[in-house]
Design brief:
Blueprint: E1 2-5, E2 7-10, E3 13-22, H1 25-28, H2 39-66, H3 70-83, H4 86-99, H5 103-121, H6 123-141, E4 149-150, H7 154-157, E5 160-164, H8 169-174, E6 180-185, H9 193-200, E7 205-207, H10 211-214, E8 220-224, E9 229-232, H11 236-257, E10 273-278, H12 283-287, E11 295-299, H13 313-326, E12 332-335, H14 346-349, H15 360-366, H16 368-381, E13 387-391, H17 397-416, E14 427-432, H18 435-439, H19 441-447, E15 450-453, H20 455-463, H21 481-497, E16 500-503, H22 514-519, E17 524-527, H23 532-540, H24 550-554, H25 559-567
Parallel strand pairs: 3-5, 5-6, 6-7, 10-11, 10-17, 11-12, 12-13, 13-14, 14-15, 15-16
Antiparallel strand pairs: 1-9, 2-7, 3-4, 3-8, 8-9
Helix pairs in contact: 2-3, 2-4, 2-6, 3-6, 4-5, 5-6, 11-23, 13-16, 15-16, 15-17, 16-17, 19-21
Bound molecules: phosphoenolpyruvate and magnesium ion.
Length: about 575
């Protein structure tokens, strides 16, 4: 058994046989020089390949329309426009005429220019490269080259886990939904067109998996896109665990599909707040149509981490304005930059001491201008009044004061400049992610409007088990009884104070933990977009959150026993 880690682009679990989908097109494009007398014939071949591709694309648009798949129809219409782009064909023709190269080579080079340009632009543009690759391959297949196929016949016989270096939109649409259990690729992106289409299959989609070196036709595997992993050759225990999960999912899906548009509540009718964690701005696109209760955690590290220059207040203002306006009337809880050893921006690393470890309020004191620009940008962007500011890693009232002073200073400086600062209804909350914060939670609640529990850090600081450190993996027990106890203490105290407490760490994304999580008294959760539907579905099946099992759980002596206990909830 081997576990491969990757990124989930569409949630879910699948178990089955892997089949590689390969396209030898890119390796098999013939390159040769042509004689001057052959140029006209070569141009004819080139135009005819474009014509074939256009006809084929027209057919794809029609096919998408008959399937009432408006996403696919829009994407292929865009591809048709690319094929009709005069500059593209003129560029390829010029290469044939001026460099005297064969038509396939010219097509390949002309497209590669565009692909490189889009790749270099990064972000969403880079994801469009797969569309150009797809259109290029379509033209190349007009020369009767190999346009991609399953590497072995397993893929032709029945439903398989489709594994490929990359997905392209036509690859996805060319496949029968019934024959695909999951898509696993090396390259990809959450908002790439191919992934948007793959998502509409309702199957798990993962990228970032070393397909070429780790997977082969005929291998048994489990794709757990919800947990971001592919398990190759699962052992009996793992297989049984996933079979149970799949059976449960199947039953629940029947009920949940009928209630797709309703907000999260328990079977008893009790409303539960279910929010979404956003880590990259692209994810806002995924949540637009989900019936969620707001963005429970917007991590802002994406604006800073890979930057050599400090982002300006204006850049930040533009990004926050966009995100706050995309959320409509729903609240957006934006966490101030959470610096840490594992997330130190390049512009700080480049300055020197790589071992310096700034956390929470200490970072505000070390980099006052950085935090001031973030606070000012946020206050300016709060035009709709749906912003909530979250202070990371607060452990005592001193930390809280440092952050509150920052917000007050930012507001005062904007006022002094005569600028708008939207603080009227502003709510400020804290991340509870150290045992220290739990011990002092009564005091901290007095000074904050709400609390978010960061169980990822709370767990590592409780168990002396550094996150992501393989040597500490054994001690990093995700549902350790001590963590549950800390959650319970926090939930009970927050309930007494009448303030909201929301669990936004990874444990909130595991549906099997909910029987216990609900017993702690928590009623607000924030999960990744990929897990939203699963968790909502799980909540809809929970009849009550009354205490029954928690006290027994606290007494469990081993990890194995707690795991067995939790597995029991899957039955
Ligand atoms: C956490 O620690 O649980 C949390 C949500 O914050 P992050 O994972 O960004 O550290
Ligand atoms: Mg944290």
């Amino acid at each position: 058994m081997k576990i491969l880690r990757g990124t989930s682009a569409a949630p879910g679990i699948a178990r089955g046989v892997v089949c590689l989908y390969t396209s030898s097109l890119e390796d098999s494009v013939p390159h040769y020089s042509i004689a001057s007398g052959a140029v006209q014939d070569e141009l004819k071949r080139l135009r005819s390949a474009f014509d074939t591709a256009r006809n084929e694309m027209g057919r794809m648009v029609a096919l998408a329309k008959t399937r009432s798949d408006s996403n696919a129809a829009d994407i292929f219409t865009t591809h048709l426009m690319m094929l009709n782009d005069k500059s593209l064909i003129e560029k390829a023709e010029a290469l044939v005429k001026n460099q005297m190269i064969n038509a396939e080579h010219a097509v390949s080079d002309a497209f590669d220019g565009y692909i490189k340009k889009y790749e270099d632009a990064g972000g969403h543009f880079a994801e469009l490269t797969h569309d150009f690759i797809d259109v290029r391959n379509r033209v190349l297949s007009g020369f009767a080259l190999d346009s991609g196929k399953f590497k072995c016949e397993v893929g032709e016989r029945g439903a398989v886990i489709v594994a490929s270096k990359r997905l392209t939109p036509s690859m996805v649409l060319n496949m029968e939904k019934a024959n695909v259990l999951a898509f696993v690729t090396r390259e990809g992106g959450i908002t790439s067109h191919a992934v948007i289409l793959a998502r509409s299959f309702g199957v798990p989609v993962m990228f970032g998996i070393d397909v070429e070196n780790e997977l082969d036709c005929g291998m048994n595997a489990v794709v757990d896109a919800s947990a971001g992993k592919v398990i190759v050759s699962p052992d009996r225990k793992t297989t049984e665990y996933y079979d149970k999960k799949l059976e449960n999912n199947r039953k629940r899906k029947l009920l949940c599909d009928a209630k797709k548009d309703v907000y999260a509540k328990l079977r008893s009718g009790q409303r539960v707040s279910l929010k979404i964690n956003i880590t990259t701005p692209d994810e806002m696109e995924l949540v637009r149509y989900m019936p969620h209760d707001g963005i429970g955690l917007l991590r802002t590290e994406f604006l800073f981490i890979n930057k050599k220059q400090v982002p300006t207040e204006e850049e930040q203002f533009a990004m926050y304005s966009r995100l706050l306006s995309e959320a409509g009337d729903k609240s957006v809880t934006v966490r101030l930059l959470d610096l840490g050893g594992d997330k130190l921006p390049l512009f700080i690393q480049l300055k020197g001491d790589p071992f310096m470890e700034y956390r929470g309020a200490m970072a505000v004191e070390a980099f006052p201008e950085l935090y001031m620009s973030q606070a000012r940008a946020l206050l300016r962007a709060n035009m709709k009044g749906n912003l909530r500011i979250l202070f990371p890693m607060v452990s005592d009232v001193g930390d809280l004061k440092t952050f509150k002073d920052l917000i007050e200073k930012a507001s005062a400086s904007l006022k002094k400049e005569g600028r708008e600062s939207f603080t009227g209804n502003l709510k400020c909350g804290i991340m509870v992610e150290t045992p220290g914060a739990v011990m002092l939670v009564d005091e901290l609640l007095k000074g904050s409007d709400f609390i978010n529990i960061g169980s990822n850090d709370l767990l590592q600081y409780t168990l002396a088990a550094a996150r992501g450190n393989p040597l500490a993996e054994k001690r990093y027990h995700i549902m350790h009884p001590a963590l549950l106890k800390l959650l319970e203490i926090t939930a009970v105290k927050a309930a007494k104070s009448g303030k909201e407490v929301c669990l936004c760490g990874e444990i909130a994304s595991f549906e099997e933990f909910y029987p216990l999580l609900l017993e702690t008294g928590l009623k607000s959760f924030s999960v990744s977009p990929a897990k939203f539907n699963d968790i909502k579905c799980e909540l809809m099946h929970r009849l009550t959150s009354g205490k029954k099992t928690l006290q027994r759980y606290y007494k469990m002596p081993s990890k194995a026993e707690t795991e067995k206990y939790i597995e029991g909830f899957l039955n």
